[in-house]
Design brief:
By secondary structure, the chain is an alpha/beta fold. Helix content is 43%, strand content 12%. The model has no long low-confidence stretch (mean pLDDT 93).
Amino acid sequence: DASVISDGDSHFAYWNSGFMREFNAQFWGDSMNINNIAISGTTVVVMNTGAATNLFPKIQSGRGDYYLICGGGTNDISTGATAATTWANMQTYVANAKANASGKGVTLKAVHIPLYNRSYADPLKSMEQDAYNELLRNNYAAGDLYVDLAAEYSAKRSDYASDLAFTNAVTAFVADTNYFYDGTHLVDAPLGYPVIAALVADAIKIDM
């Protein structure tokens, strides 16, 4: 048996039927316990301060391996946090979750997803977001899972010749209504959240 806990912001919350409906469907018929504690608008800072109340009670002994979807970070960057601070906070969050699980005799693996493209009032925040994604991509712990995304969902600065070319590409991606419906959230349609949900589910299935 295995259990999944989805934590983070609106991209991963239960109201987001596009993600959670498809994610649950991917495990139809499997012996999988799925909990969702994500809260719209939350930050990794809040995820840390609320872990003892929101996260730790969901980790229980005798329930097999745990997969923790770490879906925060975009609101930290949006409100002015640096990539380095946000990544350090995420590492603390994951370390505390693993310690809590270990104390209960179960194993927990973090499932990391890079931050999605987003329309920022200050385009430089797209650069900060990319810096966070690079920290995540290059430093997530051995044994944890990382789900990479196509440029339409999470563009990489390294794929472009200049900062301006990168920020212009992000602006174009988030304006494409095949993928995004408001410049921040994905659409509840074939090219939106269901794509991400399937990728996350597949990563967990392969690891199980």
